[in-house]
Amino acid sequence: MLTKRIVPCLDIKNGRTVKGVNFLDLRDAGDPVELAQIYAENGADELVFLDISATEEKRKTLANLVLHVAEKVNIPFTVGGGISSVEDVDILLQSGADKVSINSSAVKRPDLINELSAKFGSQCVVVAIDAKQVDDEWIVHLVGGKVPTKLNLFDWAKEVEKRGAGEILFTSMNNDGTKNGFANEALAKLSNELNIPIIASGGAGNMQHFADTFKEGKADAALAASVFHFKEIAIPELKSFLSKEGVLVRR
């Protein structure tokens, strides 16, 4: 059995780590390079670095910041935000990223998933899906959750897997920043219907929420931001707790 992964997420805007609630009301959470180094030293299994305004502002991910973060960490590192071409990914991987995350660009041009998978391997391609439950249906949203589409979460997830995505990062917009727990029912359905790893995102508030998403949500990894950024949960203590709960984690 594969170990479950704990993944701190660094949402970046204007070179700073930020965190909000339901994708809104962002507040400063610190220097991304310093945070990345601390998390790597404290037992994080991976990091996710998302330039959350890159797509909205029509600019590319800050490759220099990626380079600085990558110099400080020795764990796998995923980068996303404003990625729309093979060339973009080439720059980020050369800057030190291990994987890339695409979201809006994949919806607008699904062939991008095929192209990236063919060029760099599916293990490098994470498709992020931000979805909101509206009248019992999970609707995919774009541009940092601002633009609803007509796509259903589960249909889109199946398509991206067929196109070569190696992993899906599913963020529940309903749960994001609420600290009420992950969207475990939707996560379990994704896990049952797909054959690639699912990263749970949105809603972590305490250590039990992590245990629940691994057990009930069948997630392969759990991503969180504010509980780590604001020192509400320490990764070593979280891993100790999960181990006692019977969840296999890397110590």
TrEMBL record:
GO molecular function, one term: imidazoleglycerol-phosphate synthase activity
Stretch forming the signal peptide: none
Pfam family, one: His_biosynth
EC number annotated for this UniProt entry: 4.3.2.10
Keyword Lyase found: yes
Gene3D superfamilies from the UniProt entry: Aldolase class I
Known function: IGPS catalyzes the conversion of PRFAR and glutamine to IGP, AICAR and glutamate. The HisF subunit catalyzes the cyclization activity that produces IGP and AICAR from PRFAR using the ammonia provided by the HisH subunit.
UniProt xrefs under PANTHER family: IMIDAZOLE GLYCEROL PHOSPHATE SYNTHASE HISHF, IMIDAZOLE GLYCEROL PHOSPHATE SYNTHASE SUBUNIT HISF/H IGP SYNTHASE SUBUNIT HISF/H
Record's protein name: Imidazole glycerol phosphate synthase subunit HisF
Organism name: Mesonia algae
